[in-house]
Write a structure and sequence with these properties.
The protein is α/β, with parallel strands linked by helices. It has one domain: NADP-dependent oxidoreductase domain (TIM Barrel). The strands form 2 sheets. The protein has an 8-stranded parallel sheet with strand order 3-4-5-6-7-8-9-10. A two-stranded antiparallel ribbon has the order 1-2. α2 runs parallel beside α3. The longest helix is centred in the N-terminal third of the chain and has 15 residues. The two termini are about 35 Å apart.
């Protein structure tokens, strides 16, 4: 496994395992146990996923020491705020059956994010969190945080795949020394991504799968990534993304697939915000 050093000196695996949409508790626990057995050492969950307890059981059942596993979770909008976030964090620790987190994120940039951040800074300084960051922050919201808070976020987790590459957000992250981490690196299989002619041509040339090409493209571009799967063979396939190199021309071809190159951030329409606040 390769690692990246965050802006506070903490090392994070460049390839992790996500559990978004794994609502079935038994399935989630089995998937995480399998992922850990394959070799994944970063597990990404969130309060809104409603599977933190299953992740905690899988970690306990793995036989690995807690220090070997990098655990990420996130606080949802309804528990943003100084007091609320401290309560949410304690609930997450209890569900994961751990006494600290490696990374804790503000899941969405709506609500009392600054109050939540003050709470997270205190928890970070007290040693309960090794690194703190954000998720789904646009360039403007990220810049506000970077310039107007005591601790610059260590990481910004965003949707990022060949059809939505967010070069402007990536550049903003880099400007402030904030790591970029991709959720939904395969676009959840939408828009026929796995049938894309360019990606299939590159995959055929290297004797790899489209999924492996996507993950390799992200890793070579200094993007942390957290693919998910409930299928053991696909977990193994995704994990085997370190033994080949894409050429500069391969990377250029993938960059040309971006459908929103001038996008400054996630959709911030009033309708979307209202929907998120209602969850």
């Amino acid at each position: 496994m390769k690692f990246k050093t965050l802006n506070n000196g903490v090392q994070i695996p460049v390839l992790g395992f996500g559990v978004w949409q794994m609502i079935d508790q038994a399935q989630c626990q089995e998937a995480v146990e399998n992922a850990l057995e394959v070799g994944y050492r970063l597990i990404d969950t969130a309060a809104i996923y409603h599977n933190e307890e299953a992740v905690g059981r899988a970690v306990s059942a793995s036989g690995l020491s807690r220090e070997e596993i990098f655990l990420t979770s996130k606080v949802w909008i309804d528990q943003l705020g100084y007091t609320e976030t401290k309560t949410a964090f304690r609930e997450t620790l209890n569900k994961l059956d751990t006494d600290y987190l490696d990374l804790y994120l503000i899941h969405q940039p709506y609500g009392d994010t600054h109050g939540a951040w003050r709470a997270m800074i205190e928890l970070y300084k007290e040693g309960y969190i090794r690194a703190i960051g954000v998720s789904n922050f646009s360039t403007g919201r990220l810049t506000d945080f970077a310039l107007n808070t005591e601790v610059v976020p260590a990481l910004n987790q965003i949707e990022l795949h060949p059809y939505k590459q967010h070069p402007i957000i990536q550049a903003t992250n880099a400007k402030f020394g904030i790591a970029t981490q991709a959720w939904s690196p395969f676009n959840s299989g939408q828009d026929n991504l796995f049938q894309d002619a360019t990606l299939n041509s590159i995959a055929k040339k290297h004797g790899k799968t489209v999924a492996q090409v996507i993950l390799r493209w992200q890793i070579q571009n200094d993007i942390l990534t957290i693919p998910k799967s409930v299928h053991l063979e696909r977990m193994k396939e995704n994990f085997a993304s370190f033994d080949f190199e894409l050429t500069p021309d391969d990377i250029k071809q993938i960059q040309l697939l971006d459908r929103f190159p001038n996008n400054y951030g996630p959709n911030e329409s009033p309708e979307l915000i209202e929907r998120l606040l209602s969850l």
